[in-house]
Amino acid sequence: NLMKKFLCFIAIILVIVLAGYFAGKYLEAVQTNADNINKNEVKDVVNQVKDKITNEYKNVVNNVQEDKEENVTTFEELKNNEEIINIYNNVDEIDKENLIAVHGWQHINKVISTVEKILTDIGCDNNAIESGKIAALLHDIGCIEGKEKHAIKSYEMAKVLLEDKNISEIDKEVILQAILRHSKPKENDTIIGKALALADKLDFDKNRMYPLGLKVPHYNQMNNIEKVEISIGKLVEINFTVNEKFDRMDLEKYYFVEKIFDAIIEFSVYISKKYQVKINNEIWKSNVGGCNKLM
């Protein structure tokens, strides 16, 4: 990358300077009769020059590192990016007559918040939390081109968007892979990916539902889910708060419920914790997605 090239350039310059210095000393010795030069004095001069060059090199490295840290592209900068703002302001207008769930800012902010909570609760460092929030921010930008294969579209758009941003290549790759596989938690192999997949699936309550969703069999039970919460301590605990009209058995007929449990299981296994899923603080007993293994 640019920093490595810059440091190599500096190192080459320093070597040239050192070589020039000794060449000058050699010529001086020849001209003034080298036999009269005290070897210890020459050694001292060499060591002084070496120490000076070493210190100058360290200063250059430290300054470059400080500049890099100061100029790293942050989550907040990306969230204020005009292109991203326009996408999420308009994404729910695309194919609106066929949408059953929100994919705009309401969904994105909920996923960002949940990812941040998950990664904070399990003790991730600030860099991981920042990467997780960036992945959450960008995971649905591809929906601007339609819901079908939106994870792939989001990955491709995010790759272009992050190309010139000052984020390490390793972090970029983790972010991009999390986006690409956010609909397939079993294929995610990083904590960022697992957390994003889980947070995305847990945004499953009445606030995300479009009116058309009320007409979709089984899915319409989502309108009876008030909120979904996650807490991580000794266990990974998920609680669905529902109203009196909620029909668990009807909801379980909807295919997406199994995806929710897949995401919970994959995340819990990844962090080596047991999990419990509850409805109004009582164990959700079912055969869906391995739910019968919760005990």
**Structural class by SSE content:** alpha+beta
**Low-confidence spans:** 64-68
**Beta-strand residue percentage:** 5-15%
Provide a count of the helices.
Answer: 11
Strand order of the largest sheet: 1-2-3-4
Morphology: elongated
How much is the average pLDDT? 84
User: Could you estimate the helical fraction of the residues in percent?
Assistant: 40-55%
Q: Over all CA atoms, what is the radius of gyration?
A: 29 Å
Could you give the count of β-strands? Answer: 4
Largest sheet: 4 strands, mixed
Query: What is the H-and-E element order?
Result: HHHHHHHHHEEHHEE
The N- and C-terminal alpha carbons lie at a distance of 50 Å
Task: Please characterize this protein's 3D structure.
It is built from 11 helices and 4 strands, in the order αααααααααββααββ. Strands 1-2-3-4 form a 4-stranded mixed sheet. It has 295 residues and is an alpha+beta fold. A hairpin with a 2-residue loop joins β1 (225-232) and β2 (235-242).
In short:
This protein has 295 residues and is an alpha+beta fold. It contains eleven helices and four strands, in the order αααααααααββααββ.
Helix-strand layout with pairing:
Layout (H helix, E strand, L loop, with lengths): L1 H30 L7 H32 L4 H5 L2 H9 L14 H17 L4 H13 L11 H13 L6 H12 L10 H12 L22 E8 L2 E8 L5 H4 L4 H15 L3 E6 L2 E2 L12
Parallel strand pairs: 2-3
Antiparallel strand pairs: 1-2, 3-4
Helix pairs in contact: 1-2, 5-6, 5-9, 6-8, 6-9, 7-8, 8-9, 9-11
